[in-house]
Structures are given as structure tokens and as C-alpha cells.
Amino acid sequence: MELDHVEAFVAIVRHGGFTQASSTLHLSQPAISRRVHLLEHELGAPLFERVGRGVILTDAGRAFLPHAEALLASARDGGEAVGALRGTSRGAVTLALVGTLANSTLTRCLRRFREAHPGTDIRLRTALSAEVSALVRRGEATLGLRYDDDPHPDLVSSTIHQEPMVPVCWSGHRLARARRIDPQALTEERWLAFPPRPGAREPYSSALEQRLAACGLGAAEIVPIDSLTAQKRMVEAGFGLALLPDSSVEEELRAGTLRVLRVPALRTKIPVVLIHRRRAFQSGATRALAAMLAAWRKST
Question: Among 67, 91, 125, 139, which one has the highest count of C-beta atoms within 10 angstroms of its own C-beta?
């Protein structure tokens, strides 16, 4: 099986068609089509079904895709391993992370790593938790930071932190300075949260729904807002309450634009997990970054 043929197949899937794949791989569209035709001939089944101007995967294509991605990732690992042995490794480490984790404590940790390893090129990519896992599985990211364990057999997950979640309100809220609040005092309140994602668990929204249900507030109105910054600004303006990561509201709490509601029953934690691909080659820089990330919250 030719790697070039597999690469063409994966490029079509990732970029949504033959034309886009040919542009990405700097090949003519007939060359891309021929590679896919030869791959289909070898596998004995069509991989794509043409729909209008686009394509969709056949059952055979869906079955082959994870193996194709693993094959390309393994080939990249082999190149990195040989490069490290010869001393010609590029020294690049790609970290994929959920955007809401990119707070000041993490950026300080990454700055310390860059200062300690000036020859290493750290590349960052942000995505949702499921997408972080996909990037790591495909070998497009060396390490990943996401919420919750990923049980996929190709990944190794380790919990490095429990992110505290706190209920917040605007500074002029009627309960902003209350010392202890009965959850039932929040019966008529509106909440802001990330919208649910089809086929994927949204950790903040799930945590909020679970805590509200546990407090007898399961019927509360939840307004979907797809940005953490927008949620904070809208809470500051008095449009609702929110359950947010403690680390993401430090600045607003210091400035006094947000206040923590003293409702112990609404507090919870979300596990932050470091992932890497099982059996993947790990350079010295990768191992050093993984070790620093594992100790990230302990050192702050």
C-alpha cells in the first residue's frame, strides 16, 4: 500500500473534496483521483460516493479512515525517531488544547518551557475536547489538553488538574454580597452556558445542568452563549448567572465586576486531562513539555 495513496485519501476527507485536496497537496486533480482509484482497487471497494460537487465516505471509507490516519501518523513518528537519532529533528512540539484552558497560569507555564528549551518550536492549536483528541490520534498534535478522560484505545490519558467551577453574578446582583445562599433563592434566575454540541458532551454545560438538577433547579432557563468571554461580559451586564472556571474569572473578581455566589452546592470540578498517542515517538522536548504540563497547576 503506497503512503502517497493513503495521504491523498485522508486529504480528501479532511478538506472536503478532490479539488481542495489537490490544492493542499500541490497536485493536479487527475493525480489525486488516480491515487484514490489505485487505493480503491487495492482495497477492493469504493471509498467515496460523489454527491453534487462534493463527496461522502462509503462504509468502506469510514472503516478505512482511522487506519489510514494511524498509518500516516506512524510514518511521521518514524521520521521523527530517525531525525532524533541523527540529530536532525526539527525540535517542534504541537500542543492542542481546549481554548478555555489558555489562561494566564498555562501561558506562564509555556513561557517557562520556552525559556528552558529555546531550541524547541512550540506550536499551539485550539479546538473542542473531541477535536483535541482527534488531532492527537491523527498525529497532527503531539500532546493534547482537554476536559475529561478519553477512553480511546489509541490514546493515553492522565488527569493533571481538577478545574474548580464557581457560580458568578454581576456586582449589583441582589445576592452578590450574601454570605450563604440557599439554592432555592435562585429559582427565577437565568443561566448562561455553552450550547450543546451534537454527538459530543460539552463539559461546562453538563456540569451546570448536573448541579442545577442536584439543587432542585432543573427547570431553570439556560441561554446558549458560544463564547466564554461573551458569557462573562453578559453576566457583568446583568443578563444572567454562569458557572465558570475559577481561573477564567480571576481578573473580573479582582476588578469587582463579577462576584462569586456563595452557593456551595453549585460548586464542582472538571478534570483537565493530558493526552498523547499510545506508542507514538516522543522526543526529549515532548517528554519535557509533558512533565511540565503535568506539574503545571502544582507550581502556580
Answer: 139
d(CA 170, CA 172): 6
Contact 195, 205 (CB under 8 A): yes
What CATH number labels 163-269?
3.40.190.290
Nearest to 197 by CA among 185, 205, 189, 188: 205
- CA distance readout (Å), 252 to 177, 229, 256: 15, 11, 6
The C-alpha cell at 158 is 492522565
Q: What is the mean pLDDT of the chain?
A: 87
pLDDT bracket for residue 88 (50, 70, 90): very low
Q: Tell me, what amino acid is at 156?
A: V
The residue type found at 168 is V
Distant-in-sequence, close-in-space partners of 117: CB < 8 Å, separation ≥ 6 = 285, 288, 289
Whether pTM > 0.85 for this model: the answer is: no
Which superfamily, per CATH, for 91-161+271-299? Periplasmic binding protein-like II (3.40.190.10)
Q: Tell me, what's the pLDDT at 29?
A: 86
